[in-house]
Amino acid sequence: MAAANSLSLTSAFLPRHGFHGPSHNQNVQLSTQKKQFARKAGSGTITAKFELQPPPYPMDALEPHMSSRTFEFHWGKHHRAYVDNLNKQIDGTELDGKTLEDIILITYNKGSPLPAFNNAAQAWNHQFFWESMKPNGGGEPSGELLELINRDFGSYDTFVKEFKAAAATQFGSGWAWLAYKPEDKKLTLVKTPNAENPLVLGYTALLTIDVWEHAYYLDFQNRRPDYISIFMEKLVSWEAVSSRLKTATA
Ligand SMILES: [Fe+2]
Predict the structure, then answer these.
(1) pTM, whole model, 2 decimals?
(2) What is the distance between the alpha carbons of residues 31 and 69, in angstroms, rounded to a whole number?
């Protein structure tokens, strides 16, 4: 799949409360979302089935930094299971037919998650994670993104240090995120346990790293800090992050 497509897919997963007014981009995003999460009619019953989207690049495209073996397990087994289990959980319930973002927000239930929350959030988080990376990624951001990083973290080096620390110190399974906080128009770092994500905090997610062991154990065993360093140096798609920021601040 072409890089341009991966960016539009990225935007399709942004929380709706991250949008500020209609725009051409938004129309593109919403139509993509509709296509991705299209309802399927079957034998008189209308059910909304979420479909596991393929990664935006071939599964060996991140070698040698993320092995195809890791990718095949992570996407093909773990991500697939979250989507399949979510479909089973919402089938015939009042959540059937809602967007993935709405299901996440509803089932978060103000911090007392309902049964479908973990699968819904993990389905979203993983798609967002694949789209946070690209072959030949890494390097440094530029433009407005770099300006905001410098403004809100002091420097790019400080940001990297703090992002790595957040990812390394998330106890057990979880995620580290760069997010945009709409109410004070600032970038912020968030680390979340298990399936939680910035949507439930009212923030717009810009970048994430999965720090569940299944994300790195085959390649790095227990060396989570090495996985985090490689992610930042070789895998991050700053184009995706900039595109998400542009949507968040539009
Ligand atoms: Fe994962």
Answers:
(1) 0.83
(2) 33
